[in-house]
Write a structure and sequence with these properties.
mainly beta, four-stranded antiparallel β-sheet, 2 helices, 10% helix, 30% strand
């Protein structure tokens, strides 16, 4: 077995960081190739990142709500020794497709608040929890 680190990929468009919205895995959990590990939010989109390897999650390197720079480790995964050095090419639609705001029906977690990334950033800057803001329209 060997431990491999999966780093935050470059989302392009000059973006240098992303915020962890929600982990979909936890330490000790077994994962498969292309299984969604984490939802991250950039200034332009909300993206699901899939696992490049099958194996066991050893540790999460960032917490929900934490902003991490591109290239920094997100998660360590223990893989079998026969796993190729290069990660499997993920399904492009799984990496680049923005997520829908609703959570899966099996999730006990309530759906996230609908707010665009710049609004979330402004609220965070001003110390406002967007979940506590009452909307003024439908």
């Amino acid at each position: 077995m060997s431990v491999r680190s999966f780093a935050l990929p470059d989302p392009g468009e000059g973006l240098t960081e992303a915020t962890i919205v929600r982990w979909r895995v936890s330490p000790g959990q077994m994962v498969t190739v292309n299984q969604i590990l984490v939802e991250v939010e950039t200034a332009k989109s909300l993206v699901e990142l899939p696992s490049p390897w099958s194996g066991r999650v050893v540790q999460l390197a960032a917490a929900d709500g934490e902003t991490v720079p591109v290239g920094s480790t997100l998660v360590d995964i223990e893989t079998p020794n026969d796993t190729p050095e290069q990660p499997a090419a993920p399904d492009p639609s799984a990496v680049a497709a923005p997520t829908t705001p609703a959570q899966p029906a099996t999730s006990p977690v309530p759906p996230p608040v609908l707010a665009k990334p710049p609004v979330r950033a402004l609220a965070k800057e001003r110390g406002i929890d967007v979940a506590t803001v009452r909307h003024s329209g439908p």
